[in-house]
Design brief:
Elements (H helix, E strand, L loop, with lengths): L14 H5 L1 E3 L2 E3 L1 H12 L3 E4 L2 E4 L1 H10 L15 E5 L4 E5 H13 L3 E3 L6 E3 L1 H10 L3
Antiparallel strand pairs: 1-2, 3-4, 5-6, 7-8
């Protein structure tokens, strides 16, 4: 039975952009949302109304991966903030922690940024490693 309504897909049309992309200077798309959900589920990140905070365990988790988070967050540049993902309609990690996450993914060779685009393309082994690190 056809209701006459057409399904509207929000966000980018390209599947690669929906999967993983750069949003300002942090990781967005399905992979960005998965990392955020994993950090919440493991109590590394807590939501406090409109604000989010890394817990003590959440602050040590990146250093175990070799990611150094800056100590000097400021009012204009907090350590972490949620950013509404326009393709998934859910949050991903922004600000200093989000930038560090994207840098980690690229520097560790899990993924690369596709030339002249915002697409982040994961290698097969990088994909496996990312999902192991950010398990739910």
């Amino acid at each position: 039975m056809h209701s006459g309504m057409t399904r509207v897909r929000t966000g980018p049309k390209k599947p690669a952009l929906r999967k993983a992309r750069v949003c300002y200077n942090h990781l967005a798309g399905e992979y960005g949302v998965k990392a955020y959900d994993s950090l919440l589920a493991r109590a590394f990140l807590v939501e406090d109304g409109e604000q989010i905070h890394l817990t003590e365990d959440g602050r040590s988790f990146p250093s175990e991966l070799g990611v150094m988070l800056p100590d000097n967050e400021t009012r204009s540049r907090p350590l972490c903030k949620s950013c509404l993902d326009w393709s998934a309609r859910r949050s991903h990690l922004a600000e200093l922690a989000g930038t560090s996450l994207l840098s980690f993914v690229l520097e560790q060779g899990l993924a690369r940024r596709v030339d002249r685009s915002r697409i982040i393309e994961f290698s097969k082994s990088g994909d496996s490693r990312f999902h192991a690190i950010f398990s739910l």
